[in-house]
Amino acid sequence: MTRHLLVFALVLLTSFFPGAVFAQDAARPTLSNPNATSETRALYRYLCDVYGEKIIAGQQESTWMGSENYEFEIIHKASGKYPALRGLDYMNDDFRGVNRRAQEWFQRGGIVTICWHCGADFRGSHRESLNSNLDWEKALEPGTTENRILCDGMDKAAKALAELQDAGVPVLWRPFHEFDGSWFWWGKGGPENFKKLWRLMHDRYTKEWKLNNLIWVLGYCGDVKPDWYPGDEYVDVVGADTYVKDDGSLVEIYKKAASVSADKPVCLHENGPIPNPEKLRKDGAKWLWFMTWHTSFIDRNPVNTTEYLKRVYNSDAVVTLDEIPDVYRYDGAARAN
Predict the structure, then answer these.
(1) Where are the alpha helices (DSSP H) in 2-117?
(2) Measured by CB atoms within 10 angstroms of the end CB, which terminus of the chain is less buried, N or C?
């Protein structure tokens, strides 16, 4: 049964049986982890409900500009608003700092997404992610020394994510982003090795580490090559990113990303200029969220000016921190405002 038929059947069911609100989830995509925590399920329910209705405002942080909230204060000064979504990065093994800031954002009612720039040994930062590689055959073969090193490395983040789970914090987990661009080590082995790597992490984190607080975000670059897709059972949100010089809707990239899966919501997991909300509506680019990259992309970008930030963040099409409901107890009874 297609999703449209499911929705139609749901409308009929609830018309005759108003108490059957439990069936609402049948019209939504299913999380890849059936053991997800209640808070994680509630957040995903909200994301699926707001998808196609509004776009969630997001901002990647920097931590070296003299303030942990550098980009966020620029946005607030311009618009009187804060983004609903905060982007963090476990690079340079900053597990303690990221987790602290993630919990603080969660306590404010915000949504957290985490990526991880690191080398093939899961150390370092952006430079190492570009300049290292694996012996893919050995690294993906269970029982080898290379496989043990690979698993031990990725387990560093698992331990940190377990701390967030203990604190009740769901995470939009965005590992191995821009994989199909093949500039980071995790994409240098080609699509088949990448899919094995993604599935290895997904299975290890969910089955061995029992991480039930993760929503798995698969972040393509702008090319969006479908043969890199690990499968619906390993992905919760499909994403794409690109860095352009205008405020366009990026609708063609959206369409490519949306074609990868029949029902997963699609996000703009990184961007430079923020897409114009009016153009998003006009073009039918139903991005679930945008997440502007840090520093120069927000403090001196020729598109993301003070006036433009004010207009975007005060648009009725954009969800900001003050506007999201309690997404960790969201039951779907009230659709996104």
Answers:
(1) 3-16, 38-50, 70-79, 95-107
(2) N
